[in-house]
Design brief:
mainly alpha; Tetracycline Repressor, domain 2; 0% strand; globular; disordered C terminus
């Protein structure tokens, strides 16, 4: 039976979403094409009808993951976002969590198309954070600047990466999250955010 164009597009989107989750759970090298297609409910042979290479899918899956994170953060204030981001719940569920925290180390060793997708994801996150405060490059009433947003993003992602590198039952895993959560929340709530994040 011939697949309609609409069904083919839906199938492709489903493969990308499935890959996004699997890559976050296992890393780029931890998932083969056969596993990806089986996870999406398709045969291995259909992969090349949708994608030129695994790298093409990796880049699309990263973009999909960034969009999922942005959707979860929409309408959530920065304090609540940080509380969830630096939680044990997020740390223990990489497949449903932030693509950057799960795959930045892997992405650094991949093709330019994947690095470009990650750079776009970082830019999107920076823009979303800026929109919460009406920031410009010169700053605003919150004392927010691009450099300060980069600093916060780097700290929260780094905290998740370090915590995940520890054994699951390690007190250090929780300590890393607690220390960084407290530090970031303190900076976000400070009336002198500009000087504390400078």
């Amino acid at each position: 039976m011939k697949v309609t164009k609409a069904q083919a597009q839906a199938n492709r989107a489903h493969i990308v979403e499935t890959a996004s989750t699997l890559f976050r759970e296992r890393g780029y090298d931890g998932v083969g094409i056969a596993d990806l297609m089986a996870g999406a409910g398709f045969t291995h042979g259909g992969f090349y009808k949708h994608f030129g290479s695994k790298a093409d899918l990796m880049a699309e899956a990263a973009t999909c993951g960034f969009a999922q994170t942005a959707a979860k953060a929409e309408g959530v204030d920065a304090m609540e976002f940080v509380k969830h981001y630096l939680s044990r719940e997020h740390r223990d569920a990489p497949g449903d969590g932030c693509t950057m925290a799960a795959l930045c180390g892997d992405a650094a060793r991949q093709t330019e198309s994947i690095k470009t997708a990650f750079a776009a994801g970082v830019e999107s996150l920076l823009a979303n954070l800026a929109n919460q405060c009406g920031a410009t490059e010169e700053g605003d009433q919150c004392g927010d600047t691009r450099a300060k947003r980069i600093d916060v993003i780097a700290q929260v992602i780094g905290a998740i990466v370090l915590s995940r590198a520890c054994p699951d039952d390690s007190p250090l895993a929780d300590e890393i999250l607690d220390v960084c959560r407290t530090a970031v929340l303190s900076r976000l709530s400070s009336p002198t955010l500009g000087s504390s994040l400078a």
